[in-house]
Specification:
This protein has 102 residues and is α+β, with helices and mostly antiparallel strands. The chain has one domain (11-95). It is 40% helix and 19% strand.
């Protein structure tokens, strides 16, 4: 791959909300092992997040594992659904980074 070609699967660092990480571990998601590679960042009483540096495709895999949270029939707290939404936005921003003005 030359320097001018974009990386097909770039390495990105994203924060995964702690309640989302807890959910994936609680439901014994097959991607929960990925969370052990991240750095836990505590926010006092507000909770924590997991800072994970890995390929974008693995962030997408984590997101797809939590996709059931979009289903209103799934019994999940509002905070977990909100965390899923935040993480979705973070992943999407990396999938379509803003273009540089000319």
């Amino acid at each position: 791959m030359s320097e001018s070609e974009p990386d097909d699967d770039p390495i990105v660092t994203l924060n995964i909300p702690g309640v989302l990480a807890d959910y994936l571990i609680a439901v014994e998601s097959p991607v929960a092992w990925l969370l052990t590679d991240g750095k836990v960042i505590h926010y006092g009483e507000r909770g924590y997040s997991v800072k994970l540096t890995t390929q974008l495709s693995l962030h997408e895999l984590i997101l797809s594992a939590a996709r059931a949270l979009k289903d209103p029939e799934v019994d999940a707290p509002v905070a977990v659904r909100r965390a899923y939404s935040k993480y979705t936005n973070r992943v999407r921003r990396e999938q379509c980074p803003p273009t540089k003005p000319r």
